[in-house]
Amino acid sequence: MIFIHDTEQNLRAASYLVNTLPGYDDEDTLITLEDFDDYLRINPYTGTIRRDDAELAALRAVRPRLHQLWEVDRDGAVPLVNEMLRDGEALPRLVSHDGFDWHIHATSDDAPLATRVLVEAALAFVDVIRAGEYDRVRICAADDCDGVYVDFSKNGSKRYCDTGNCGNRMNVNAYRRRKARETA
Question: What's the burial of 133, exposed, middle or buried (CB within 10 Å: 0-12/13-18/19+)?
Answer without folding.
Answer: middle
